[in-house]
Design goal:
The protein is an alpha+beta fold. The chain has a single domain (7-22, 39-219), classed as Transposase IS200-like (Alpha-Beta Plaits), CATH 3.30.70.1290. It contains six helices and nine strands; from the N terminus they run αβββαββββαβαβαα. The longest helix has 20 residues, at 122-141. The radius of gyration is 17 Å and the shape is globular. It starts with 6 loop residues before the first helix and ends in an 8-residue tail after the last helix. Mean pLDDT is 75; it is low at 1-42 and 196-213.
Length: 227
Amino acid sequence: MDRHEPVDRLGHACEDGLGSARAPRALSGASPESSEGVRYTKRRLPHFERPWGKYAVCFSTYQRHPLAPEERDLVLHSLLYGHKCRQYDLYVACVMPDHVHLLFEAQVKDRDLSAQTIFWSLTEILQGIKSSTAHRINRLRRTTGPVWERESFDRLIRSESDLHEKFSYICRNPWDSHVADQNREYPWLWTQEMSSARAPKTAREGACAPQTGRAAQFLGTAKPQTK
């Protein structure tokens, strides 16, 4: 798998204040449509990035190997770590048994000598998540080797309606995929609205109590909180 910079090391940058700088957004809910500032990267799939761009991202476990509940806890904590350190503004995250969904907006990392704003790149964000979680999951399993597929799939959000569509899709995924029972919560789904009501470490305990129509009930009130 890729050799990445660990999230803990990125966390040191957070403690030093990097990633906390703010700059005015072009738009709140939608990404600017002009090509100015767009940065293209390429691995096996083409990728392009835009300042204040919002992205829907999905990456899978290596050969679709399922994650144990404790491993999903670990992955969700890692995703929230980057949000806390302002590498990205996370709208929703969902850790499925063999893949992960994210919807986020990359944040400001620093400014260069000419005062140009530098954003956390998709590569930095995803490599940090994959590297740190792979190391910890391998330690839990007492194994070595790849945990994640090398490639990630990302989509630039182009409008407010696109943002809401992807947000709803990710929120519905555990129930639409029949991974979660329709009358129960899914412990590894996180949104900003849910963050104060349920912590990842104790999420599975709260999920034991049956609820009524959790997917429909949640989607009736939840929405991406853009600034």
